[in-house]
C-alpha cells in the first residue's frame, strides 16, 4: 500500500490529477489490508481537497467497517452520506443490514429496511436474504417467512441462498416436513440445489436420527454430478457415529481417501469420539497417531474423547496421565476435560483425587458448571459423606436456580443427577440422616422455584 501511495504522489507531482477510480482503488486496498481507519482518514483528506466521492467509494468504506465488526460507525457514515450530494444505495443499506443481523440486532436491521422503503430505495435479493437470515438466527421463523412472501410479492426471485437459510432453520427446529416443503418449492421454481443445500438436508436428517435418509441424499448428490466435499463426509460420518454405526463411518472414511477428499480435524475427532464410545479405544489411538503423521493438530476435543473412554473403563491413572500429557503439549484442558475426569474419579472410588482437582479449580477461579457439582455430590453420597454433600450444596445456595436450570429450562442430565442423589440417600443405611438431607435439598429446590419442573422431568425420564 505504501508503494501505491508513492505512485499517486509522483502522478500528482507530474501535474496529473487522480480520478475517482484511482481514489476508490486506494481506499479498497486499505480496507482489504484491514486499514479501514486509514481509509477513513484518506476519505476526509480527499474531501478537503475538493474531490467528490461516489457510491462505490462509500460502499467500500461501509463494507470495510462492517467486516471489522464496526457496525455503528458504518451506520454513522451512512447518515453522513445522506447529508451529502451522493445518495446512499441498496448496496450500502444491505451491507449494514447484514452486519446488524450478524450482531443479532434484528430490530435495528428491520428499521433500516423500512427506511430504505421510505426513501424508495428498492431492496434486492441480498437485502432480503440478510434479513431472513437475521430473523432465523434469533428463532423468529414466522417473521422470516413473512419476508420471504414479501419478496415474492415484490417480484424478487428467491435464490439458492434464500432457500438454504430457510431449510436449515426448519431442520434445526425439527420441522422436517416443513423443510421438505420449502425444498419442493425450490425445485418447482427451478432453483438448482448447491452443495450447501445438500449439507443442510443431510445435517437435518442426521439431527432427527434419520441417517439412512441422509445417506440417500448423499448418494443422490453424487449421482447428479455434485462432488461431495469434506463437510458432506463429516456430516454423514457424524450421523453414523451418533447412531453407533462406527464400522460404516470408517468405511466412508476410507472412501474419502479413494475420492481424494482430504479429511480434516473434524473428521478425525468425530471418528475418534465414535470409536471411543463404542469401546474401540485402540483404533482411536491409531487415528491420533495418523493425525500426527499427516500434520493435523490434535486438540482438546480429541483428548476429551479419549479421556472419557479411559474413565469409562476405569483406567484412571491413564486418564490422569493423559491430562498431564495435554498440558505438556500446550493444549489447555477445558471445563469438559475436568468434568470428565472428576466424574470418572468419583465413580471409580477415587474421591480424594477428585476433591484435589475440584479445590484446585475453585482456587484458580474456574466457573464450575452444574455437571462439576453434580459429579462431586454424587461422589460424596456414594461414600456416605452426606454432611459434606450437604455442605457442598450449601455453597451453591446463591446460584441454586442455576444449579437446576441453565437458563429457564431444566436440563435432563441435571434432573437425573438430582434423582440419583435422592436414590443414594434413601438407600443408605443412615436413613434418618438421609431424610434430613433429602428434606434440605427439597427446601432449596422449592426456594429456587424449580421443584415442579424437576418432578415433571423426572416423570418424563421414568
Features of this protein?
462 residues, mainly alpha, globular, disordered C terminus
How would you sum up this structure, described in words?
Belongs to the PPR family. P subfamily. InterPro entries: PPR/CCM1_RNA-binding (IPR051222), PPR_rpt (IPR002885), TPR-like_helical_dom_sf (IPR011990). This is Pentatricopeptide repeat-containing protein At1g12700, mitochondrial. This protein is mostly helical and 462 residues long. The chain has a domain of 94 residues. Helices cover 74% and strands 0% of the residues. The protein contains 27 helices and no strands. Helix 9 runs antiparallel to helix 10 and helix 15 runs antiparallel to helix 16. The protein is globular. The chain starts with a helix and ends with a helix. The N terminus and C terminus are likely disordered.
Amino acid at each position: 500500500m505504501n508503494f501505491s501511495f508513492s505512485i499517486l504522489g509522483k502522478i500528482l507531482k507530474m501535474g496529473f490529477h487522480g480520478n475517482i477510480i484511482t481514489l476508490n482503488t486506494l481506499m479498497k486496498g486499505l480496507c482489504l489490508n484491514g486499514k479501514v481507519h486509514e481509509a477513513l482518514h484518506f476519505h476526509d483528506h480527499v474531501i478537503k481537497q475538493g474531490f467528490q466521492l461516489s457510491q462505490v467509494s462509500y460502499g467500500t468504506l461501509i463494507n470495510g467497517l462492517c467486516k471489522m465488526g464496526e457496525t455503528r460507525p458504518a451506520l454513522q457514515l451512512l447518515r453522513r452520506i445522506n447529508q451529502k450530494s451522493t445518495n446512499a444505495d441498496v448496496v450500502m443499506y444491505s451491507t449494514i443490514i447484514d452486519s446488524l443481523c450478524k450482531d443479532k440486532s434484528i430490530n435495528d436491521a428491520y428499521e433500516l429496511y423500512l427506511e430504505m422503503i421510505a426513501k424508495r430505495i428498492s431492496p434486492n435479493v441480498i437485502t432480503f436474504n440478510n434479513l431472513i437470515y437475521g430473523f432465523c438466527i434469533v428463532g423468529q421463523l414466522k417473521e422470516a417467512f413473512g419476508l420471504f412472501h414479501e419478496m415474492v410479492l415484490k417480484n424478487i426471485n428467491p435464490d439458492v441462498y434464500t432457500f438454504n437459510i430457510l431449510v436449515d432453520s426448519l431442520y434445526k427446529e425439527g420441522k422436517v416436513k416443513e423443510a421438505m416443503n420449502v425444498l419442493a418449492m425450490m425445485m418447482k421454481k427451478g432453483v438448482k440445489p448447491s452443495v450447501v443445500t445438500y449439507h443442510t438436508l443431510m445435517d437435518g436428517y442426521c439431527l432427527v436420527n434419520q441417517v439412512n435418509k441422509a445417506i440417500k441424499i448423499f448418494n443422490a448428490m453424487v449421482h447428479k454430478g455434485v462432488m461431495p466435499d469434506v463437510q458432506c463426509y463429516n456430516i454423514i460420518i457424524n450421523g453414523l457415529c451418533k447412531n453407533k454405526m462406527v464400522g460404516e463411518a470408517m468405511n466412508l472414511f476410507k472412501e474419502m481417501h479413494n475420492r481424494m477428499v482430504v479429511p480434516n480435524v473434524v473428521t478425525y475427532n468425530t471418528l475418534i469420539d465414535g470409536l471411543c464410545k463404542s469401546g474401540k479405544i485402540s483404533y482411536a489411538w491409531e487415528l491420533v497417531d495418523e493425525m500426527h503423521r499427516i500434520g493435523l493438530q490434535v486438540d482438546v476435543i480429541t483428548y476429551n474423547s479419549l479421556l472419557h473412554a479411559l474413565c469409562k473403563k476405569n483406567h484412571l491413572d491413564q486418564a490422569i496421565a493423559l491430562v498431564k500429557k495435554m498440558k505438556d503439549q500446550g493444549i489447555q484442558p477445558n471445563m469438559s476435560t475436568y468434568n470428565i475426569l472428576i466424574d470418572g474419579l468419583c465413580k471409580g472410588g477415587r474421591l480424594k483425587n477428585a476433591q484435589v482437582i475440584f479445590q484446585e479449580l475453585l482456587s484458580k477461579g474456574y466457573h464450575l458448571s452444574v455437571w462439576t457439582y453434580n459429579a462431586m455430590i454424587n461422589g460424596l453420597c456414594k461414600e456416605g459423606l452426606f454432611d459434606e454433600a450437604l455442605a457442598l450444596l450449601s455453597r451453591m445456595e446463591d446460584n441454586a436456580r442455576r444449579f437446576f436450570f441453565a437458563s429457564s429450562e431444566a436440563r435432563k442430565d441435571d434432573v437425573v443427577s438430582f434423582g440419583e442423589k435422592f436414590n443414594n440417600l434413601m438407600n443408605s443405611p443412615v436413613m434418618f440422616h438421609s431424610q434430613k438431607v433429602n428434606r434440605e435439598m427439597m427446601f432449596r429446590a422449592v426456594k429456587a422455584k424449580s421443584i415442579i419442573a424437576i418432578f415433571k422431568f423426572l416423570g418424563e425420564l421414568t
